[in-house]
Specification:
- By secondary structure, this protein is mainly α.
- It folds into 3 domains: 83 residues, no CATH class; 126 residues, no CATH class; 202 residues, hpI Integrase, Chain A, CATH 1.10.443.
- 51% of the residues lie in helices and 5% in strands.
- It contains 25 helices and 5 strands.
- The strands form 2 sheets. It has a 3-stranded antiparallel sheet with strand order 3-4-5. The chain has a two-stranded antiparallel ribbon with strand order 1-2.
- Strand 1 and strand 2 form a beta hairpin.
- Helix 7 packs across helix 8 and helix 17 runs parallel beside helix 22.
- The radius of gyration is 27 Å and the shape is globular.
- One of its GO terms (molecular function) is DNA binding.
- This is Phage integrase family protein.
- InterPro entries: DNA_brk_join_enz, Integrase-like_cat_sf.
Amino acid sequence: MLNQPHLSKRGNTYQWRRRLRRQSTGIVDIKLSLGTTDLRCAHILSRRISAESDIVMEQLTHQQITPDMARRWLASVIAKEREKIEKLKLLHRFDSRDPADDNRHDQATADAWAKVMAEGLHGTTSGQPLVSLNLDIIRADLTSEACQNIIQRDFKALTGHPQLSAFDRAKLISLLIAGKSAAWNRHGEALAEIDTAADDTWDSASQLLAPEPESPTVPPLPCPEVAADTLDPDMQAVVSRMNEMKRSEGIEEKTLRQYDSFVGLFTTLTGISDVRLIRQTDATGFRAALYKLPKSWGKSPADRNATREEIMARAAKLPTEKVGLSIGTINRHLEHLGQIVEWASDEGIAVNPKLKPGKLRRKDTVRDCDKKQAFSEAELRHLFKSSVWTGSKSEYHQTKPGTEVYRNGIYWSPVIGAFTGARREEIAGLAPSDIVERDGIPCLSIEDSELRRIKNISSKRIVPIHSRLIELGFFDFVETARAKGQAELFPDLREPATGKHGRKLGRRMRQIVDKTFGAEGAGLSFHSLRHYVQGTLEHVPDVTDKVLRDIVGHEGKDTHERTYSKPAPPAVLQAAIERLPAVI
């Protein structure tokens, strides 16, 4: 359980220095030690306030969080965290099979918080796998949008303070880290009063609220001054800056391309490219246009260069059922607009304060679970009787009946999917070295590699290999690949032009499903294997929600579970995996 793969090193911490000029007080140096997620904060601080903006600056100053507010926030963080620790210790006392292992995990959590306190959100990793795992979870959570929203909500509930600036959020995150580190690393002592712990932590953390002296002893890193009014307000420029930061945080290129694609669509439909010119009526008109687009918009490269008139003319020729994007897709576009506008605002660009794209979202009338079709057990048994698994004409014509079974990526990937619930790219990008043994149990190691990217930190996991895969000769296939010195387990799935593996598998799976089920299989895809595994194990009483999430790589249901809950042992995961029926 503790033999976790080595976690990749996070980005280095950057120091950003900006001068906030005020006519009445001269120059005040403010120095922050921030990670890449706080670049927006650095841009805000870089804005030069002119003589005409003294009144606005005074209003902002009056709205800043006070030391008393921050002190109350710190005490609240410590109190809540110590309450969680007490609950954990109570659970350990009455429901622990291995107290030493529980203590080891608790110590790893304490060490992780201490390391984040010392090095920040983008410090180094740890040589101890368990500490490293906690570091990744903590840092991912603290840099998430959900965490930002929770901080805003909790701080407002505690102090009544209005909307926080990016700089204020950075201060509160720093105090939150200090408080949680204190709660974990002082908890072994006799329980002192919360105020005492907060006082001690406050002494070392309160300087975060005050600017440094004007003459720093350490020379600043070379970083040119950038006034907010010099930043390009063009939406594509805003997205480029935003994506550069997200890219450094490890966000998938596929996700970043969605923002670029959105800008092209928004500009085409509204004629607006300057983020400062967008009004709520423009956002409303954009949403109305999305209801008139062809449902297939964006799937053809030609769509990128089409004009609004050409798009609407094409839609007018289509039957009604093929026009109008889904509510989920429309809501996603509105979310993209909201994120871009917020980013530009945090950079100091003067966006319209009444622009609220999120208010235009519509409630989806179809549940997520009803949108995605899963294979049934009977359908899978039928699928695996097709020519790919019973005999093909040739490896090139694998979907045509013949006498030879070709055990390649097309053969193995759907079978692995049916016995693991792993994602398409996770399977297609496997390497021979990803077949490992944990606690004497053969497993798939799913993590970032040169061949593939995983979706998020929760996707990194160990998945035991079903006994039916072993009976079918999967280990023999892996050993043959190792003997040949292959870097890829399924080289036949790699696209030579892009080096990617998943897309070819998706296309071939589409051919197999269409040939096997005809029109009735229109809603089935490789992803339907994942839904089959989830749906099957959900109805097995012995398989808990936590175990199922560990198998398929889903995040914990809350922050507490994501931060402190340890993965289920391989033996527990194996017992659940073996409950999947042998459909081939």
